[in-house]
Amino acid sequence: xxxxxxxxxxxxxxxxxxxxxxxxxxxxxxxxxxxxxxxxxxxxxxxxxxxxxxxxxxxxxxxxxxxxxxxxxxxxxxxxxxxxxxxxxxxxxxxxxxxxxxxxxxxxxxxxxxxxxxxxxxxxxxxxxxxxxxxxxxxxxxxxxxxxxxxxxxxxxxxxxxxxxxxxxxxxxxxxxxxxxxxxxxxxxxxxxxxxxxxxxxxxxxxxxxxxxxxxxxxxxxxxxxxxxxxxxxxxxxxxxxxxxxxxxxxxxxxxxxxxxxxxxxxxxxxxxxxxxxxxxxxxxxxxxxxxxxx
Length: 295
Ligand SMILES: [Ca+2]
Ligand SMILES: [Ca+2]
Ligand SMILES: [Ca+2]
What we know:
- By secondary structure, the chain is of the alpha+beta class.
- Helix content is 12%, strand content 28%.
- The chain has helices at residues 5-16, 192-197, 277-294; strands spanning 37-38, 51-60, 63-71, 78-84, 118-126, 131-139, 145-148, 158-161, 172-175, 201-207, 218-225, 232-237, 272-274.
- Residues 47-48, 51, 181-184 line the site of one calcium ion (CA).
């Protein structure tokens, strides 16, 4: 059988026409494809309370769609999200702008080859009068940061959008806390099949312009931290090597009031890569060319 030019055109058109993900805290129906990173260690921050099972990403219509499956406890623990998506950046966290108390991480050193440009923070809980889910966005090394409180309008779960500020376009945010599977509690190797089976957690959409308009592949680091940005869990994507307990503030599970460990001291890359749509398209075309050659 020969694949006709029109059939290829149809397949390409179908690819282009793929609907954008729905920002609802679930990868279901969103065509994210394979995980970009899968958890390697059980969680030291509470099974089904704070765990990162896997990361999924798509770029569509000038936006990054990113989902971290798992849970974030409703006690204002943080999901820290760092992007190395522009020239320059910080291999050691400067603590500027220091929004939401993030200056406590001053001195945190990322793996070689990762220089963070943008930082986002996600947290949720009951503040004494309302349930809320908050989002921060910051351009590292500048005074530009914005904090968006209660983006779900009185809920710890749901979907909504931020306003604009340091970010030029609203950021879409969805959170679904229904995961009760995935990795277990502990410090041993994670069950990666269980981690990959989880479909719910934090889902965002962010305009590529607010990530420095990366023209090529870029890098992302996600991890779970405590409420004061000074006691890291063992839930990192890219993952840590098991067995591994919580890193705390000093990398050994100790509390120091700050956080200044060096991720080069931990095996593997504590980041994952998001390819550009161009790279994905080329991969697809390569597959088609291969198919034609074989026939
Ligand atoms: Ca979704
Ligand atoms: Ca779990
Ligand atoms: Ca490392």
